[in-house]
């Protein structure tokens, strides 16, 4: 009798589960169809759109590409560098579509597929903030759906944009970027540099003292001793193709003007940039992402998450500056959770 009862109960729950699966199937197909819904234009271009940007030096075009469709969650990606391209963020395609999250690639002016005015005066933080605002308007992003994710230099741009235009936003993600460039430089000098082989550091400092940054020896030393430890924790020969493709297209004029000659500290126009005291003015939900081996101090990143009004901190214990590659599971699980709350 007990066997019959157990069998009956098991059969009942099994049939219930099968019925439930059958009921959910059409909904899943419907969601998939809606996610890959075509844009409302006569000629389909795979989501690509050039956007005209008004600047003090005239009108230029910037490149964007929409992936997926979600009326409630639209994530605009701001690449780092400055001067790299959207391409190193292509790994997002392996995680966000499965969750129905729409995201938008965007090459900033002077980057990748966008126009390059070849004018150093255009490499200016306030001008880039206004550029992002023009992109937002053109893409019809608003406070009910617009999330801005900035990585590295893109994090600086995202913070500046939020401090001026957060009323147009639903949420902010600051990925792998401190809010104080002076503290960033100090962390590189006082923490990361001391982890290097003393002989390597001595040779690097000698090259820097002569400003001999075009010397190939400079990157020969930095790649195994710094980049492979703090930018992306893989041998350079194994770096993902989207990363090498993107970095290979870096606009050096933009990069050196804003950042300086390398990721080993900061010495460009952003050298004295500091928004730490202003983070308290960011009142929208904000996710700050730090990583154990990053060029950015993870403790500083955690403190940032406490200074904003509605902050959350995501720590990637195996990650570096590109934690979305070397600690993917942690990074995307945390990001997706934040976007879906």
UniProtKB/TrEMBL annotation:
Active site: 152, 294, 321
The keyword Transmembrane appears for this protein: no
Domain AB hydrolase-1: start-end pairs: 75-327
Tagged with keyword DNA-binding: no
Pfam families membership: Abhydrolase_1 (PF00561)
Key words of the record: Hydrolase
Domain of life: Bacteria
GO biological process: proteolysis
Similarity comment text for this entry: Belongs to the peptidase S33 family.
PANTHER family: HYDROLASE, PUTATIVE (AFU_ORTHOLOGUE AFUA_2G14860)-RELATED (PTHR43798:SF33), MONOACYLGLYCEROL LIPASE (PTHR43798)
Record protein name field: Proline iminopeptidase
